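hey so u asked for the seq, here:
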Amino acid sequence: MNEPRPTTGQRIRAELERRGWTQDDLARILGRSRPDVTNVILGKLGVSAELASRLAAALGGTTKDWLDLEVDRQLSLVPASDEAVARMARLYQAAPVKSMERRGWIKATKSVDDLEAELTRFFDGTPLDTDPTFPATLRKTDRLTPLTIEQRAWILRARELAKVPVASPFDPSRMGSAARAIRAIAAFPDEAYKLPTVLGDYGIRFVVIEPLPGGSIDGASFWLDEHSPVIAISLRLDRVDWFWHTVAHEFSHIRNHDDYSVDENLVGEDRTSVDVKDAIEKRADAEAAALLVPPEKLQSFISRVGPLYSKVRLNQFANTVKMHPGIIVGQLQHLGEISYGHHREMLVRIRDTAIAASICDGWNRTIGTL
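ran it, structure tokens below
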């Protein structure tokens, strides 16, 4: 077993004794004051690179040898374990603390105990380092990757806001009627404010939460209990096709009684490739598109008109199927029939209308929370 290295003071004393020198002698040789030498021996004064070089010249060894002893001295002054620092690091790894404080989801705190208490309250029984769990449902979506800490905090905030009463009990047999009611208001962007009421009439809770920085997310569906489904969306993109496709996608999960789903990159140039989606997500995409635009009619329009999709023809088709033309454009973009740069003026903004009557957290406002 290796002997422990001596301290700087122990080595200096040994070298002085071997040479028969006093501390005054060493101070004179080094060109330093006697108090400096005494404080170095007592461990009260650190050894600089310059002094280490002089000690090596006077007492032997190398400059690095003396600096290594100085490192040992400095490490001896540090507590062997700083549990508070380790705990704080774990909390920052489990949650986007700064973003949550900025949004008012947790209180700003100074001590690790207070921060841990705030996060424990917010996570409401969910372990800080695991994805949230919800009551078991019928069809489980196999998520390819774990949630990011931003996504985890977002869905927990959605779960918190969703604990509000709805107008009617959930009845799976009425989902066909719910789909038709959703479609009826999707045709008119100015009527998006009606969505929370429409969903509530069918027992589905609806919340809108601005995404956290770094937390790419479009929407989620989950169940507070087996009779209380929730649709949450982020309105990450303020455009009519994105909004209604996301709503319809999450509605498909509810209609099929899927396990909770957190979805990102559903629409647009950065959408997730269909090749990496499981069967449940593919089904939700297909059902969402069909809820908004009858697929056989869209295919007929494509075969008759494509690739010459003029604004006039798009509007004519939108009138025929009674759907907003921006939603038609979004589906054609998704199918690769038109580029993402074409007809962007039809992808009207919808955020302000959509959040007007919603349980909402974000964009400097919190509406309708308890």
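The first strand starts at residue 205 and ends at 209. The beta strands are 205-209, 219-223, 229-233, 261-263, 359-362, 365-367.
lmk if thats what u needed
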